[in-house]
Design a protein that fits this description.
With about 90 residues, this protein is α+β, with helices and mostly antiparallel strands. The protein is built from two helices and four strands. A four-stranded antiparallel β-sheet has the order 1-2-4-3. The chain is globular and about 30 Å long.
């Protein structure tokens, strides 16, 4: 293979590896959604983090607005919601 041929093969391999790592990292994290605002924090909890762990993250988020996070009863699915209350 020529030098040019090697670089054409390596570039897509690097991109594929970077995408694979990115997808794995995003699949392992509990994330805030765009639905979060000064009145509520919404998590997509794909890793089944405990409610206590999510509570501490929600507390930190709500403190930005001078509020306290209070768990909102949900159907127990992947979405977990905390209200930010004064």
């Amino acid at each position: 293979m020529t030098l040019i041929g090697n670089s054409l093969v390596r570039r897509p391999l690097r991109l594929g590896l970077a995408l694979l790592i990115g997808f794995q990292l995003s699949a392992c994290a509990t994330i805030y959604t765009d639905a979060s605002d000064a009145n509520k924090v919404t998590f997509l909890n794909s890793t089944n983090e405990s409610r206590a762990d999510l509570q501490s993250k929600a507390q930190a988020y709500c403190m930005q607005f001078g509020k306290k996070a209070v768990y909102r009863e949900t159907d127990g699915g992947v979405v977990t919601v905390f209200d930010c209350r004064p």
